[in-house]
C-alpha cells in the first residue's frame, strides 16, 4: 500500500520543474501515468502560472548560420540551457523565428519550411500541415529579414474549446484584403475564416494573446495611416472586434519641431495586460516610443502610460521596440527591439537603460526574446 494519499503526491509533484517530472516518470508505472495524465498537466501548469514559478526567458538566435537557441530562468538569468531549433539553418537561407508563446508552447515560423509548435521543456515539436495551393498561390509575398512581411501570424489558446490555434493571414494578390487561415491543434487541420476587415502594418506585428483573443494594430481598409486601430480576433467565436482606445496624450521631447508621424507600432502583453507601443517622430533624427498598458481589459479609461523612450545608445532599433516582461520586483521592464541589438532593462524609477547580459551566451550574436512557462502540455 502507498504510504501517502494520491492527492498529496499530486500536490507535491505539481510543484516540481518539468525536467524533474520527466525523470520521475521512471519511478513507477503509477507515477508515469499520473505525470502523463491531462488533468495533472493542467494542475501543474496552473500551479506554475499562479506562483510565477518555472518561468523561462527564451533567446531566439537571429544569426542565420546558427541552429542553437537558449533559455534561462527568468528571475535569476542563470541555468542556461541550449537546444536545437525545430528548423535547421542548413535547410536554406531563411531562418526561423518565434511568433507566439502560450502555456509552455512556442510557435515557430519558417518562411519556406512552414510552422511548428514546440515545447522546449519536453523537447517535443509538431510540424503543422501545409496549406493548399488555392491560398498560397494568391499570396502577395514581400520578402524581408528572412521572412515574409505580408504574412501576419498569431498563436493562442481557445478556452471555450480547449484547443490551441494558429492564425495565419496572407495579403492577397487579387483582392484588397488579408485572407485568414486558422489551424486547430485538436483537429490538426487548417480552415479558412472571414477575411480580416483591417489593413495591417506588417513589420513585427505578431498577434498578442490576451483574454482569449489575438491582438494586432492596423488601419481601416484603404485608409492606411501606419497603425491607428487596435483590433482583435476572438479564438473561440472567431469574430473580429476593435479594442477601445483611451484618451491618450503623449510626451514629446523638444527637438525643434512638431510631431510629424504618429501611430501604433505593435500590440503586446506585459504582466498579463494588453499593451501597445506608440511611435512618433519630431524630426528626421529624433524618434520616440511611449508604452501604454490597459489595466482592465476592454475599459478605455484604464489605459495607463508606463514609459517613454527616445533613441539611445542602449536601444538603437527603436522602431521595433517591444515590452517583454516586468522584473520580479516590478522596478524594471525587459525591452526587445526584434534582434537589432541585445535586449535591455529599462528602470522605471530613474528611466535609464542597461543591456541584458547572460553568462554563457555568445555576446557577438543577436537575440529576440520571449517569455514562456515550463509545462508538460503536449504538441499533439
UniProtKB/TrEMBL annotation:
It holds the Pfam family FBA_1. Residues 1-43 form the F-box domain. CDD domains: F-box_AtFBW1-like. Coiled coil: none annotated. Gene3D superfamilies: 1.20.1280.50. InterPro entries: F-box-assoc_dom_typ1, F-box-assoc_interact_dom, F-box-like_dom_sf, F-box_dom, SCF_F-box_component. This is F-box family protein. It comes from Theobroma cacao. The lineage of its organism: Eukaryota, Viridiplantae, Streptophyta, Embryophyta, Tracheophyta.
